[in-house]
Amino acid sequence: MAHSFLWRGLLAILFAMNFCLPALSAQEDSAQLTFRKTAVSKKSVQYHTVRKDEAIYGIIRKMPGVTEKDIPHYLEIIKALNPRIKDWDKIYPGQKIALPSKSIAGAGEEARGDATEDLSSAASGYPTYRVKKGDYLIRIVRRKLNIPTKTQQAMLRIKELNPSIKDANLLYVGQILRLPQARMQAGTGPAPSVRPGMDEAVPAPPPLSEGRPAQTGDEQTAAAAMPEEQPAPAERTESAASLSPGARLEIIRHILTQMHGNLMTKGNYYLPISRTAQLTIDCSAIPVVELDDQTTVFLEMKNRSSASLKKLIGGAWSNLHIVKMDAKDDVIVLLKKIFAKSKDYEIIKAGKPIALGSEPDVEIPADWLINRKSKVRPSDTVQGLRLVYQNRDILPRAVTRLARAHSLAVTEFSPVSGLVAPREELYSLPPLTVLPKSPAADLGFAMLSYLKLPADRNVEIRVFNIEKDGFNLSIKADILVSQGGRKTVVFSRTPPQEFIHVLRKTGHELIFISDRDDPATNLEKILRGVNVPFASGYFLFSGADHDQPPYTIGFKGIKIKNDEDVYAVPFDVDHDLLGLMKEAWSATLIRY
């Protein structure tokens, strides 16, 4: 009798577990509109020939009247004018690029917007609309297309015409939308009021800010179109109500995937009870988390699991756990619940920035850390979590890639839109210049050549001549630098004192370097001897200096003042980091 009762109970559980909820909606990324074709008069275009070390952002900055917030608008127009260029990270010296003249770009915001709209309209053949402050998609449908009810079909059609729109609440000022031909009207009167239940529920979006910069690149996300807000307090956490369960689970899925874990929200999960029976769990109703430490966590939503199921799982498997997922739980709370059941991992509040090794010393800010419980070294940190509230909170891709190279994953997400991707940076830089560390004479000559100083190698200098001294005698100098009437001689081996006296008497400046000395010491001697300004020490750069997150990059080196700031360092530098240093601080790094 008891046996029959048990099986009836299990059958009831199986029935309850297989009851399917509607599929969770996955958070989608948001990208900007990319133009494929243009119809522009040649009179409206000027051409620029790419010079050495130029990047597209630097070219745009040099255009008359362009400010930082204008750059994304100009970049979109330039892409439209140059459809053959597929990778803007690989422009090369000598390449010709079409740039918009004032007739397209204009001097002000309206002129730029109109030009972009003209390009978009010419490319698509559809009427276009330029997003204004306070706009969101449903309002455009009601006012511009004059569709007061049953707007879902019109919104879907607009999304088809504008694949960049992934979230109806994440439009940005100046964005150009293609609109359907049907029912297009010019009226901009007040939109008809909609009572709950009459139309689809569309939450009111946050207010849009004027002049918000658009992001570019193929991997833009919803945060690239996030509204600008006031800086958030340090202890601020995201509101669970602003993210759907699906969006929260997508963030968790991303985090777990980078830890070689898994989150299942589709299909079934099977647990064997005996040789002839198994428990089937519907993952759309109860998502399943699997960690690489053999921990499995079932996320209970809406009290789906019964006390019998909890008792059954808890008694049969020590590594299986059920945790309750409340509607009010934000992402961090859910992660705390999950990792509280883990054997190897924990999530803790970040007390200080995360250090990414040395040479260079890079530190990035984080709000939360996922660590191994047996953490004994900083490198044991598995993942850093960052909550972003505005565009400038997003770390540059060069920094997140460097973190990944140091086995640290960085996940950034918005309390409004979910997962975000690092800002795409477009750099066109040659490889890192590497000077020979030794012999000392080779290092010195390579540095002088890099600085474009007139230097010659292995030069014979006559010390005694037959007319004056009765015999000829020359000495070979490793390097001879001629600057006007001034001659500087570099020796890697100290010549006899008599020769030194004669050379100085004849007006030569002498520099003595040695293969036994540190390369930095030899460089300093040469730079000082040829009167090139420099400073040696530790140099620190902060993203906060350029309205970016407060990451820092620091290193020991020699700062050389030439036509630009050149930093000679004794270590290799990641190419993306080189680009970031060049773009943000106009700093060029070379290695010795």
Summarize it.
With 592 residues, this protein is an alpha+beta fold.
Q: Say how many strands there are.
A: 26
Total domains: 3
Low-confidence stretches: 1-40, 106-124, 183-241
User: What's the total helix number?
Assistant: 16
What integer is the average pLDDT?
76
Residues in helix, %: 25-40%
Task: Report the principal-axis shape.
Answer: elongated
N→C terminal distance? 84 Å
Radius of gyration, Cα only, in angstroms? Answer: 32 Å
Query: In what range is the share of β-strand residues?
Result: 15-25%
Largest sheet: 7 strands, mixed
Label the structural class: alpha+beta
Walkthrough of the structure:
With 592 residues, the protein is α+β, with helices and mostly antiparallel strands. It folds into three domains: 42-225, no CATH class; 240-419, no CATH class; 433-591, no CATH class. It is built from 16 helices and 26 strands. Strands 12, 13, 18, 23, 24, 25 and 26 form a seven-stranded mixed β-sheet that branches. α3 packs parallel to α5, α11 (397-405) packs antiparallel against α16 and α12 (440-450) packs across α15 (519-529). The longest helix has 16 residues, at 2-17. The protein is elongated and about 110 Å long.
How are the elements arranged and paired?
Blueprint: H1 2-17, E1 45-49, H2 56-61, H3 71-81, E2 96-100, H4 102-105, H5 109-124, E3 128-130, H6 137-144, H7 152-161, E4 176-178, H8 245-258, E5 262-264, E6 268-272, E7 278-282, E8 288-290, E9 296-301, H9 307-316, E10 320-325, H10 331-339, E11 345-349, E12 354-355, E13 361-364, E14 368-372, E15 381-387, H11 397-405, E16 409-414, E17 418-419, E18 433-434, H12 440-450, E19 455-464, H13 466-469, E20 473-483, E21 486-491, H14 497-505, E22 508-512, H15 519-529, E23 534-542, E24 552-561, E25 565-569, H16 575-585, E26 587-591
Parallel strand pairs: 9-10, 15-16, 18-26, 21-22, 25-26
Antiparallel strand pairs: 1-2, 3-4, 5-8, 6-7, 8-9, 11-14, 12-13, 13-24, 14-15, 16-17, 19-20, 20-21, 23-24, 24-25
Helix pairs in contact: 3-5, 11-16, 12-15
